[in-house]
Amino acid sequence: MGPTLYSAWRATAPYRVRIGLALKGVAYDYAAVDLLRGDQRAPAYRAVNPQGLTPALDLGDGHVLTQSLAILEWLEEAHPQPAILPKTLLDRQRVRAMALIIACDIHPLNNTRIGQALNRLGVSQADNLAWVRRWITDGFDTLEPMIARYGAGYAFGDAPTLADCCLIPQVYSARRFEVDLTPYPAIVAVEARAAEHPAFQAAHPTKQPDAVPA
């Protein structure tokens, strides 16, 4: 029995893991979790992931992995080739730093549950959108010079890494919320390069079985 990925089609955290699985060539079954409907809070999903977040990767052998970056690190160790972390210590640190800017400093401030919490506090849709854009641009302001310095087609070097697994979903989210990407040519160039790669194509939200037509 192979792994099952519990995923939500346009949520960025499971999107990262889909990219990693595709890059590693790991086949998996897809279990959709509707975040807007609240599937993540239902007892059936809480039995899989008590935190009630996506993604979760059920390995089919009694082990369930959670937290997108931890899953990606596990993938790198369990399936070393093709590598998504560079060879040297300093280069691995730089790639992890890029990934963590996204996973820790951008995404947690503007994901679905934060938006819903702001709505319950009476924050207007306009202010909620401004909040999302503020944190994306803040993170991209930091990432842009890093990618301009270390990138050579992808965020770091000339092959996809952990950083790209995080960056491409965040760019998708930025476009969804109509963030002006003009100040970020290095980031946009990585987006264009990744769009040509089969792994990123397969992981795209619109290709998922639970995707909602535009």
Fold and architecture overview:
This protein is α+β, with helices and mostly antiparallel strands and 214 residues long. It has two domains: 4-81, Glutaredoxin, CATH 3.40.30.10; 89-199, Glutathione S-transferase Yfyf (Class Pi), Chain A, domain 2. 52% of the residues lie in helices and 7% in strands. The chain has helices at residues 12-24, 43-46, 68-78, 89-106, 112-120, 125-150, 162-176, 185-194, 198-203; strands at 4-7, 29-32, 56-58, 64-66. A hairpin with a 5-residue loop joins strand 3 (56-58) and strand 4 (64-66). Helix 1 packs parallel to helix 3 (68-78), helix 4 runs antiparallel to helix 6 and helix 7 crosses helix 8 (185-194).
Write the layout of secondary structure elements.
Elements: E1 4-7, H1 12-24, E2 29-32, H2 43-46, E3 56-58, E4 64-66, H3 68-78, H4 89-106, H5 112-120, H6 125-150, H7 162-176, H8 185-194, H9 198-203
Provide the descriptors you would attach to this structure in a database record.
single chain, 4 strands, four-stranded mixed sheet, alpha+beta, 9 helices, 214 residues, Glutaredoxin, Glutathione S-transferase Yfyf (Class Pi), Chain A, domain 2, 7% strand
Oligomeric organization of the protein chains = single chain
Strand proportion, as a percent range, falls in: 5-15%
Number of helix segments? 9
Helix and strand content put the structural class at alpha+beta
CATH class membership of the largest domain: Mainly Alpha
Query: How many E strands?
Result: 4
Helix content: 40-55%
First-to-last CA distance: 34 Å
- Largest sheet: spatial strand order: 2-1-3-4
Mean pLDDT: 95
Shape field: globular
Predict the CATH topology of the largest domain: Glutathione S-transferase Yfyf (Class Pi), Chain A, domain 2
- What is the annotated CATH architecture of the largest domain? Up-down Bundle
Total number of distinct structural domains:
2
Main beta-sheet annotation = 4 strands, mixed
> Would you list the SSEs in sequence order as H and E?
EHEHEEHHHHHHH
Query: Which blocks of ≥5 consecutive residues have pLDDT under 50?
Result: none
Using only CA atoms, what is the Rg? 17 Å
